[in-house]
Amino acid sequence: MPARKQLLEVAGREVTISNPDKLYFPRTGHTKLDLVRYYLAVADGAVRGVAGRPMALKRFVNGAEGEFFFQKRAPTSRPDWIETVELSFPSGRTADEVVVSDAAQLAWVINLGCIDLNPHPVRAADLDHPDELRVDLDPVPGVGWPQIRETALLIREVLEAFGLVGWPKTSGSRGFHVYARIEPRWTFTEVRRAAVALAREVERQAPELATSRWWKEERQGVFIDYNQNAKDRTVASGYSVRPTADARVSTPLRWEEVPDCEPEAFTIDTMAERFAREGDPWEGMDQAAGSLEPLLDLASQHEAVGFEDAPWPPHFMKQEGEAARVQPSKRRTGAKAREGIVPPPAPGKATGPTGRRRSTMPLIEIARAANQAEAMDGLERWKARHAEVWSRLEPADVLVDSMRGRSTTWYRIRLNLRNVPEPERPPQEPLEIDYDPWAGPGPPQRSVAEGPEA
Question: 336: closest CA among 328, 348, 346, 347?
């Protein structure tokens, strides 16, 4: 029996929804059609967050609890009213990416299995000059939501001090986002340079709250991820549903809402009514474009007193003026070049917590999982067996890494036992979750251009 399809009239066009009854959120009961109807209910806000921007397609063809993959190239089989633009990436490759400008195009993208929307910070008309500075607040494990809110409020003050207007939103996950509309006059490298200066200034003002340190072993508090402003990085846009058990939404807020906001209050069930009642708090964002010059002047001051460029993401080429792209505990200095050991792997595994690299830190690996929720479940089981050891760990000792697989990301959890007396340190045990991201053929795909049916 052929799969059921449903035709929707959207913005004067017919959009076909395949498998409309397919369950996308098993714990809440929401189907693919529910997801499409949610996006249409908030279409004015959702389209505003992605309008005219190339978008990487993050496809969950088996729903929120299944694996996802990123598809940069627009499907070759698409309606003639779907817009695209050719992007160039740091690797030298190019791809025609989808550009959404209206509700019909939005519904078509959601039908592909895209739960959240991941636009680039540029418009299709000018791919070399971002018009958004994106501040991504990523809490170290153990940091509570009140500290994240407090950091966001400080971000607002610092942005205002440098002539920019901050626009807050929940990430829909553990973190928080603050955007600033900027004039499209600066390159990606310059925008990232301004983001580094902003992060360092926030850390200077409140080191107990936030950090600009790239290496996880150095972080305390809320990490300000300046590298989200590097070229080819995308962030879930406003009104994006996130692949969480309760279908949370990345929600644009007014600043007066931030001190008391709770992320679990904003879900696929509550947002349509909120949007109808209050409209889009970010409606005036395009009229508030500011200059990066004050932040770039701050960056110049930092460089004049000896600050190096902060580390770039690992897949980027080494940049001029960049600090050593080696985490501090592994840096070689003279006679100490061969200090440390290669931590042993878990039973049955070929590599351990640091691969084949040496470390002076006593690291053990807890889990390798297809998604973060499974990895954290494994950590909870380990904690239950080693409660006394767990009580000695600091938040920065819990290393949760998002790793690149064949066409998806996977998650690894490691623990740094530096604060545990050596005789009390547990040995490396079998992994609580043992996922192999390279096993099997990967997501079933018709072709690179098409991808599987959602």
Answer: 328
